[in-house]
Amino acid sequence: MTETAGAPITYESAGVDIEAGDRAVELMKKWVGKAQRPESLGGLGGFAGLFDVSALKRYERPLLASATDGVGTKVAVAQAMDVHDTIGHDLVAMVVDDLVVCGAEPLFMTDYICVGKVRPERVAAIVKGIAEGCVLAGCALVGGETAEHPGLLGEDEYDVAGAGTGVVEADRLLGADRVRSGDAVIAMASSGLHSNGYSLVRKVFLERAGWALDREVPEFGRTLGEELLEPTRIYSLDCLALARTAEVHAYSHITGGGLAANLARVVPDGLRATVDRGTWAPAPVFGTVAELGSVARPDLERTLNMGVGMMAIVPADSVDVALATCADRGLDAWVAGEVTEREGDEPVVLTGDYAS
């Protein structure tokens, strides 16, 4: 047996502070309590989140939809700015807006927060953002996990991930099989960069241009850091409302891969969606990334949302109602293109130049 000298090793001396974790739970309780639905059961502290699904009896054939996601390297900006109550909002958006694409109503979410060192106030701020995002999405936050990983992450480093579940009636399931030639493509404005492409964005602004996060940028009307931390728009309730008031054939959440790649996922074989760039002007941040980084348009469009966070494909006779519904909800939306018979191999074609 090998003998070693020194003080006894405890979990705390190894880098894990159980008391700090308990304090984080206490601080987050009030926020989790705000993100509930009538079907939520139990409370914070259980081994599993509970959700009463007896309400699904009203469905003829309920289909459960699930999605999971994170927020990528946007967390590095939050850490650098020491602002942590917006990242959770981003996390909810990335999950629930994937769920609603098929027409599913988001029901509940769980989260996972991995930290190098538990700082209770910081963890509570992250959960605050998640809870507020769930309220905006109309879903419940039924549970989560905070894990402390000393040695794997630095003391001020963390990452977040989440998973969500939604439900849709089988005969109201949206997708490519509903899309027809003659349909209109409606674009819904993004709130900014959302949570994709930050490896490129950070490299351009922070490394290539050497800009500080507290730099005031007149084109943005705020600091660089504030622009980069603008929360991702949550579209779920807007999309559900739109599907109730107008006929919708498909939605496309514009995330990693950009507009063309994501829209192509809901365009069936034999059809093509043509999108006119001239129907909107992207926010200044997109052009600034291109200019400072000498980023070619194909790379830019494959990486960033270019001002469009969600798209809806609707029959031509539903356009007016769809646009009116978006306007009533304060969501900027416009007809950006149409679906036609496909000529060639590309399911999505972008034409023209962006408006200025």
UniProtKB/TrEMBL annotation:
Record key words, sorted: ATP-binding, Cytoplasm, Ligase, Nucleotide-binding, Purine biosynthesis
GO-annotated cellular components: cytosol
Chain ranges of the PurM-like N-terminal domain: 63-168
Pathway(s) served: Purine metabolism; IMP biosynthesis via de novo pathway; 5-amino-1-(5-phospho-D-ribosyl)imidazole from N(2)-formyl-N(1)-(5-phospho-D-ribosyl)glycinamide: step 2/2
Ligase recorded as keyword: yes
Main location group: cytoplasm
One function term, GO molecular function aspect: phosphoribosylformylglycinamidine cyclo-ligase activity
Membrane spanning residue stretches: none
UniProt enzyme class: ligase
InterPro entries (alphabetical): PurM-like_C_dom, PurM-like_C_sf, PurM-like_N, PurM-like_N_sf, PurM_cligase
GO BP annotations, alphabetical order: 'de novo' IMP biosynthetic process; adenine biosynthetic process
UniProt cross-references to CDD domains, sorted A to Z: PurM
EC number: 6.3.3.1
Catalysed conversion reaction: 2-formamido-N(1)-(5-O-phospho-beta-D-ribosyl)acetamidine + ATP = 5-amino-1-(5-phospho-beta-D-ribosyl)imidazole + ADP + phosphate + H(+)
PurM-like C-terminal domain boundaries: 180-346
SUPFAM superfamilies according to UniProt: PurM C-terminal domain-like, PurM N-terminal domain-like
One Pfam family from the record: AIRS_C
Cellular compartments annotated: Cytoplasm
Keyword tRNA processing found: no
Family stated for the protein in its record: Belongs to the AIR synthase family.
Protein name: Phosphoribosylformylglycinamidine cyclo-ligase
Species assigned in the record: Streptomyces tardus
Gene symbol of the encoding locus: purM
